[in-house]
Design brief:
By secondary structure, the chain is mainly β. The chain contains no helices and eleven strands. Strands 2, 4, 5, 6, 9, 10 and 11 form a seven-stranded mixed beta sheet that branches. It has a four-stranded antiparallel beta sheet with strand order 1-3-8-7, with no helix packed on it. It is globular, with a radius of gyration of 13 Å. It starts with a strand and ends with a strand. The model has no long low-confidence stretch (mean pLDDT 94).
Length: 124
Amino acid sequence: QVQVAESGGDSVQAGGSLRLSCTASGVSANDAGMAWFRQVPGKEREGVACIGWNVGNTFYSDSVKGRFTISRDNAKNTVSLQMNSLKLEDTAMYYCAARSRPGCGLSSMLYSYWGQGTQVTVSS
């Protein structure tokens, strides 16, 4: 059984930084593409960043490119999202997702396994 769990959400002032972490159990790091999504009430879930099993294979949404960095530790089956220069519009519930294929993308349809989410709130 695959389980995905996020941590690290918090309240932070605009311009600050946060680091989210995600652990996926029950899926092989060598097979699993992983991603971070975010969602605010009333809006669709948005793909933020993803990383394939090959750590050089990463994609970012335009809204976070240059500010967020996704990374992974395959030995620990963990993925992190370093978020810098946070903006008010980054406020959302952030979800980690995993798939049993080595590639990744920013469409939620690619992922079968999801965490419960961790809240990020950016204030002025």
